[in-house]
């Protein structure tokens, strides 16, 4: 029954109606551009979605695809001119906004528009196909908002404006490519849908073989970079999964303070019983079992024996952009609890403790754990076990999830 509701006459009427150049439509586009910029700037997804809903940028793209599907040069030229005008308005509005905006840091919303993948191609094509079907139905207007959100034309266009205002070529090229993908494959899907409806209604097609070959070549050229990007994402996801399995099975007795994959180098920082050189070498060889044989394992151990060394601890804290001593400059509940733990331990063992180092890290499950490293004085060497037990109990009483490590005077020069 859906096919019976579809009409090429309705499609033609809806496309032609949306291609009329009016100042009010261009004003709406400019407003949508500014709204999208604000959403991208403050990292607000709802605001960005709102901008996509009110943006009229879809109309000329659908017009281009409809003109291609009908081999109508006049309609194609009209839609292309409107498209170029609207793209120019959107980029100018975005560039002006980001040039005067006091927020210069690239948000997650902006960064998300700089790395197109093959999935963006699929979204644009099927979104465009859904759009042309809705345009050919008398009651298809309820599909349009969803298509506008899914195909996301306005955000990458505004990200191009951000790149221009900050003279950042990576943003301009990345977001520009994403916009090109969306626009081209929406138009291509519209053209395919138009041709399908024409065949169904018994019309004679006049799309030349040359035009068909040209469209296929352009499609392949546009898809290649996004396919490479998609492969990279899938590959990185596979490596992360294999690495997590490796850590769970081979380093289950260690606390993973940090893990990172940089090129072909796997960097892992651990806290726990110190591993010997032969054990580390075995870990390197066991990477082959997890399809990571061409990666080099770089294992940083933050402990010596059963103790954490102050040098390794402080170096790690500096790398993690955390403080290497107790700070009370903020009013957060975590810092207040850590301060209570510090004060309680120092009050109980004032002569046995020379210093306390703390920092917070996240494990592979993104759970935050506090590290408390207690530096003992000469008087405290014989009470290391007692102080460690008391510190662990004190942390628990203050609802602090902490790993307690002791540093003896002999280790302070390590």
Provide a compact summary of the structure.
61% of the residues lie in helices and 12% in strands. The protein is built from 16 helices and 8 strands.
Write the layout of secondary structure elements.
Blueprint: H1 2-5, H2 8-18, H3 23-41, H4 45-54, H5 58-70, H6 73-100, H7 108-111, H8 118-135, H9 144-151, H10 154-165, H11 169-200, H12 209-250, E1 255-262, E2 265-271, H13 277-286, E3 296-301, E4 303-304, E5 307-308, H14 310-319, H15 333-348, E6 353-362, E7 368-376, H16 384-397, E8 402-407
Parallel strand pairs: 2-3, 7-8
Antiparallel strand pairs: 1-2, 4-5, 6-7
Verbal overview:
- Helix 2 (8-18) packs across helix 8, helix 11 (169-200) packs across helix 12 (209-250) and helix 15 (333-348) packs antiparallel against helix 16 (384-397).
- Strand 7, helix 16 (384-397) and strand 8 form a beta-alpha-beta unit.
- The chain folds into three domains: 8-207, Glycerol uptake facilitator protein (Up-down Bundle), CATH 1.20.1080; 240-307; 334-407, ANL, C-terminal domain (GMP Synthetase, Chain A, domain 3), CATH 3.30.300.30.
- The model is unreliable at 321-332 (pLDDT under 50).
- By secondary structure, the protein is of the alpha/beta class.
- The chain contains 16 helices and eight strands.
- The protein has helices spanning 2-5, 8-18, 23-41, 45-54, 58-70, 73-100, 108-111, 118-135, 144-151, 154-165, 169-200, 209-250, 277-286, 310-319, 333-348, 384-397; strands at 255-262, 265-271, 296-301, 303-304, 307-308, 353-362, 368-376, 402-407.
Question: Helicity level, as a percent range?
Answer: 55-70%
Mean pLDDT, as a whole number?
Answer: 78
Low-confidence stretches: 321-332
Number of domains: 3
CATH class bucket of the largest domain: Mainly Alpha
Distance between the termini: 79 Å
CATH topology of the largest domain: Glycerol uptake facilitator protein
Number of helices: 16
The structure class reads alpha/beta
In total, how many beta strands? 8
Main sheet summary: 3 strands, mixed
